[in-house]
Design brief:
Elements: E1 4-9, H1 13-28, E2 32-33, E3 42-47, H2 52-68, E4 77-82, H3 83-95, E5 99-103, H4 111-121, E6 125-127, E7 147-151, E8 153-154, H5 165-169, E9 173-174, H6 177-189, E10 194-198, H7 214-222, E11 229-233, H8 242-249, E12 257-259, H9 267-272, H10 279-292, E13 297-304, H11 311-324, E14 328-333, H12 351-376, E15 380-388, E16 395-400, E17 405-409, E18 417-426, E19 429-437
Parallel strand pairs: 1-2, 1-3, 3-4, 4-5, 5-6, 7-10, 10-11, 12-13, 13-14, 17-19
Antiparallel strand pairs: 8-9, 15-16, 15-18, 16-17, 18-19
Helix pairs in contact: 7-8, 8-10, 11-12
The structure holds iron/sulfur cluster.
Iron/sulfur cluster is lined by residues 156, 158-160, 163, 165-166, 200-201, 236.
């Protein structure tokens, strides 16, 4: 009988968070985690469908796992989970009949039972219905050392025209505020000091359920003893306004880092993307953030090569990047996805131009990110110690409230906060000296 498992995770923070629930589901049913796929009875691929590249990587891994069968004793039971499982289970099972369990986006917690069922019946188990979504029953046990992710809203109702997520994860569903608060309290009781609230669109929290809104939720979490830093990911610019920014920025535990996806600097492309905001609105949100947060770091997501994007549209994106001077940006080349509105527009897609634009954008952002890091030199900051530096055991890798990584020589261990003064930059990492322990 299968008793050990190994999980491989692709894609965004939501998927990483879902993998924690998969692992806890296995553990509560008596399975044991192993650190190498060779030793696993069950291998779970928790997959991503957001870009074609992520899908190809999973196909590559499935091919690798097929080759594993010839060099190991027992054949592992392969579980396909997450977005690819939801999107194309029939096709993938035809190509890879060694997949015995398929668990779509509403079934992460059902995987161990499905594995047991396959063990009993030897019939593949496919769970892709979306009748009922249950939030994770695991609360304090979701802690990962001194930090934890807390899912507050599942799914997305925005239907950005390039995005497959609403088609795979379904419409927004907010976790009841009482359950979120209970989870954060339990995490704090386990020594968690930093939480990141997660959702495809956290600003929409409570909208469909009639529960309290996102700013109210943050205010309640801000009062929970033990939690010292609160982060959130991802925000939709349409759902931010001046009042919400003011309320959130006024909470002393909320970190001064806002991830605000722009996607494109062209209003024409934003409209085709169905992003539901204009550049003027985006700028007004940014103004509010810079007014109310003290010295906030701003990061973003940008897509180049969206269908019909012209040189002029792309130049507008570069202009906004120069104007905002993002601390960092996740940059992507447009990837046509099934079910999406933009895939209908893709006839004029020029991959070579998109590749050149991506390189130009990365180059620009790289130099701005470096300048933004240089701006930190000489400043004092409170940092959270993450772990020992890989290069030097007497130094610790730490993180600022602005989510910048800093190397600090210190005797203190992970989970402690210290005050530092930033002194220099090595590559993309800041270096600092300790000023005093908090
Ligand atoms: S907000 Fe848009 S990009 Fe983000 S998950 Fe929803 S549909 Fe996708």
């Amino acid at each position: 009988m299968a008793t050990t498992y190994f999980i491989e995770t692709y894609g965004c923070e939501m998927n990483k968070s879902d993998s924690i629930d998969i692992a806890l589901s296995f553990q509560t049913r008596g399975f044991e985690e192993v650190s190498c796929e060779d030793d696993a009875d069950v291998i779970v691929l928790n997959t991503c469908s957001v870009r074609g590249h992520a899908v190809e990587r999973v196909f590559g891994r499935l091919g690798y796992y097929r080759s594993l069968r010839t060099r190991r004793r027992g054949e592992p039971l392969i579980v396909l989970a997450g977005c690819m499982a939801q999107e194309q289970s029939d096709r993938i099972m035809e190509l890879f009949p060694e997949i015995k369990v398929v668990a779509g986006t509403y079934h992460y917690m059902h995987i161990p039972d499905a594995v047991r069922e396959y063990g009993r019946t030897r019939n593949p188990v496919v769970l892709t219905d979306r009748e009922q979504y249950d939030f994770s029953p695991f609360k304090g046990s979701r802690a990962e050392g001194h930090s934890a992710w807390v899912n507050i809203i599942m799914g997305c109702s925005n239907y950005c025209s390039y995005c497959i997520v609403p088609h795979l994860r379904g419409p927004e569903k907010s976790k009841p505020a009482g359950a979120v608060i209970d989870e954060v309290r339990q995490l704090a009781a386990r020594g968690v000091v930093e939480i990141t609230l997660l959702g495809q669109n956290v600003n929409a929290y409570g909208r469909e359920s009639g529960d309290i809104g996102f700013a109210d939720l943050l205010e309640r979490i801000n009062d929970i003893e033990g939690i010292q830093w609160i982060r959130f990911l991802t925000s939709h610019p349409r759902d931010f306004d001046h009042d919400i920014v003011r309320r959130i920025a006024g909470l002393e535990k909320v970190c001064n880092h806002v991830h605000l996806p722009l996607q494109s600097g062209s209003d024409r492309i934003l409209s085709l993307m169905n992003r539901q905001y204009t550049l003027d609105h985006y700028r007004s949100v940014l103004d509010s953030i810079r007014t109310h947060f003290s010295d906030a770091a701003i990061t973003t997501d940008l897509i180049v090569g969206f269908p019909t994007e012209s040189d002029e549209d792309f130049a507008m994106t570069l202009d906004v990047v120069r104007e905002v001077r993002y601390d960092d940006a996740f940059t992507y080349r447009y990837s046509s996805r099934p079910f999406t509105g933009a895939s209908e527009l893709a006839t004029t897609y020029d991959t070579a131009a998109a590749g050149r634009r991506l390189e130009e954008l990365i180059e620009l952002q790289r130099s701005i990110s470096h300048q933004r890091n240089e701006d930190e030199i000489g400043k004092r900051a409170t940092v959270l110690i993450e772990r020992e530096s890989k290069k030097n055991a007497s130094e610790m890798l730490c993180k600022t409230g602005k989510n910048k990584m800093v190397i600090v020589p210190t005797d203190l261990g992970p989970g402690r906060f210290i005050d530092v003064e930033i002194e220099s930059i090595a590559g993309n990492t800041l270096r600092a000296r300790e000023v005093r322990a908090v």
